[in-house]
Design a protein that fits this description.
This protein has 18 helices and 19 strands. By secondary structure, the chain is an alpha+beta fold. The chain has three domains: 158 residues, FAD/NAD(P)-binding domain, CATH 3.50.50.60; 175 residues, D-Amino Acid Oxidase, Chain A, domain 2 (2-Layer Sandwich), CATH 3.30.9.10; 106 residues, Orthogonal Bundle (Helicase, Ruva Protein, domain 3). Strands 3, 4, 5, 6, 12, 13, 14, 15, 16 and 17 form a ten-stranded mixed beta sheet that branches. The chain is globular and about 70 Å long. Bound molecules: flavin-adenine dinucleotide. Flavin-adenine dinucleotide binds next to α1, β8 and β17.
């Protein structure tokens, strides 16, 4: 769409198409405001497609005394589980307890009981060593005392962003991707008057007018408005994950363990047919406009952790499907270690420009309501904040008969596409109502999203509308021909454009998602860990002498 065809005047302009911007956009359109969302790359391109995909209270925040934040996150988790079945799903987690390891059984018992109290339901259980081993047969049992099972939840993060955006668009909002806000305009009284936007590909520009602008640009927030506290600034912290096929790392429940090297909590999470291992937490010094990548040291750290926990699986780097890295928007005074920094959000108000940053995927609704509350005096006088209104309208899950899809597939489709799930299936050819190997995605999702979800590039389609770029070998290289066939009617690309898109996607994938090292280039220490049998022996020795002597920290 040409920018010149857009209306000039808006009640609210939201900058940033991650979870924070999408949450604000959804709430604002529910309140009946004329709202536009502007994203400089693709929707969810930033951190919001690169998280650990957990909707969780964050047990570790309890230890750091952030009770309020954990309580809010647990409440939001419970609400999302009720409102978005098929998109946000509960996930059982296992947490082993080793001899001499901190936190020990008693501390974890207290933490998990508090967690249950916040959820108003008993959701955890302790198993002795033998029972726990049966729950996770490949676990390193040396020094194992037993372990806990507790409940949390998970999500497809970019689909959560997209569901909010499309619901808001259906309620009358406009959302532009590949459009950047270049400038915030103010009037002679320094009150916000609007923004200058630019289509980053066509270079077309336009001025949009509104007395209220919300800057929801995550790690980029200080580019549009500097922190009002000279001692507290955004500290970009990189977190990376490795992705394994379920065949190599066969866990059906989430698993949380203390990493032997630095005693941080690391997650192993089954997700969409694959298994994620993460995350790291490091200062990110690179330019934010460059796609973040996992480093060799991070690969080595995550491999060391997972190998020490599951030595019998003989996991090696060759098993790994890919990696992804994201940048946490964290407010910092620069004194703490990355993992000790608070994940709480902040709201800064400056005469019509409201900046909201920090926070978590899980608490997006709270961020949205806090930002809109701060913007209230610049919004139309009749709009009302309703903190109790559901985020997602209820979608009756009454699948039409005769398509041969399992109830789980229907549930997942309703969760992702809302009521449009039925059209997606009705429009599909029968052979496309099958699951793409190694994933939970069905082929029919591809032409649907290509047609209906503002896809500009192949990277948008394969990395954020569906996630097969992360879930299948070499970013789905073997499927690219079929994908082209499926989507060529929906995407107005000629042969040359398809070729260029395919080349750009492959290059992008190699830069951002391939491992920085394959075995050939791995330093000797990592190569040893990556060799199946030596890795097993060494990690067993490592575990015996180091891991259960460790003094870890609570999750
Ligand atoms: C490794 C990792 C794991 C995590 N795991 C979890 C988890 O499991 N659960 C959880 O609850 N939270 C998790 N988080 C935190 C969570 O992912 C982030 O807090 C959240 O995604 C931030 O969303 P955001 O919308 O504020 O920022 P982003 O998602 O980064 O969105 C900001 C957007 O603004 C756009 N933008 C910037 N400047 C402009 C401009 N001038 N014009 C237009 N657009 C612009 C960017 O392109 C970007 O898309 C994790 C974070 C990381 C890094």
């Amino acid at each position: 769409m040409d920018l010149k065809d857009l209306p000039d005047q808006w009640d609210l302009i939201v900058i940033g198409g991650g979870i924070t911007g999408a949450g604000i956009f959804r709430e604002a359109t529910r309140m009946g405001m004329r709202t536009i969302l502007i994203e400089q790359r693709d929707f969810a391109w930033g951190t919001s497609s690169r998280s650990s995909k957990l909707v969780h209270g964050g047990l570790r925040y309890l230890k750091e005394g952030h009770f309020k934040m954990t309580k809010i996150a647990v409440e939001e988790r419970e609400r999302l589980l009720k409102e978005a079945p098929g998109l946000v799903e509960s996930l059982k987690f296992l947490l082993p307890i080793y001899e001499d390891q901190k936190p020990g059984k008693r501390t974890m018992q207290v933490g998990l009981s508090l967690y249950d109290l916040m959820a108003r339901e008993r959701q955890h259980q302790y198993y002795d060593r033998e029972k726990f081993r049966k729950l996770v047969p490949p676990i390193n049992s040396s020094g194992l005392e037993g372990g806990f099972e507790f409940l949390d939840a998970q999500v497809d993060d970019s689909r959560l962003v997209l569901r909010l955006i499309w619901d808001a668009v259906a309620a009358g909002g406009r959302a532009l991707n590949y459009t950047a806000v270049r400038h915030i305009h103010r009037n002679e009284d320094r009150l916000v008057a609007g923004v200058e936007v630019e289509d980053v590909e066509t270079r077309e520009t336009k001025r949009l007018y509104s007395p209220a602008v919300i800057n929801a640009t995550g790690s980029w927030a200080e580019h549009l408005h500097p922190s009002p506290d000279p001692h507290r600034h955004l500290r970009p912290l990189r977190g990376s994950h490795l992705v394994f096929p379920a065949s190599a790392l066969p866990l059906t429940k989430g698993f949380s363990f203390i990493h032997p090297a630095d005693h941080r909590a690391v997650f192993v999470v089954p997700w969409e047919g694959a298994v994620l291992v993460g995350t790291t937490d490091l200062d990110h010094a690179q330019n934010l406009s460059v796609e973040p990548q996992i480093t060799e040291a991070e690969v080595s750290y995550l491999m060391q952790g997972v190998q020490s926990m599951f030595p019998s699986l003989n996991l090696s780097l060759q098993d790994c499907l890919c990696a992804f890295a994201g940048i946490r928007p964290v407010l910092s005074e620069g004194k703490l270690k990355p993992s000790e920094e608070s994940r709480e959000h902040v709201v800064w108000t400056d005469r019509g420009l409201i900046t909201v940053t920090g926070g978590k995927l899980t608490t997006f609704r709270r961020l949205a309501l806090d930002a809109l509350k701060a913007a209230r005096s610049f919004l139309p006088p009749d709009v009302k904040l309703d903190r109790k209104a559901p985020v997602f309208d209820e979608v009756p899950q009454t699948p039409p008969l005769g398509y041969g899809l399992t109830p789980q597939i229907w549930r997942r489709l309703y969760g992702r596409y809302g009521a449009a799930a039925e059209n997606l299936v009705r429009q599909a050819k029968p052979r496309d109502l099958t699951v793409i190997p190694g994933t939970h995605t069905i082929w029919a999702e591809l032409p649907y999203v290509a047609q209906n979800e503002q896809v500009r590039h192949l990277t948008d389609l394969l990395l954020r509308r569906v996630r097969i770029g992360l879930l299948t070998p070499e970013g789905g290289k073997a499927y690219l021909k079929r994908i082209r066939k499926l989507c060529q009617n929906a995407l107005p690309w000629d042969r040359r454009r398809w070729k260029a898109e395919t080349r750009a996607y492959r290059q992008h994938w190699t830069h951002a998602h391939a491992l920085p090292v394959r075995l050939a280039g791995v330093p000797a220490k990592q190569r040893i860990f990556a060799l199946p049998f030596l890795g097993k022996i060494l990690s067993a020795i490592y575990h015996k002498f180091f891991t259960h002597k460790q003094r870890g920290r609570i999750l």
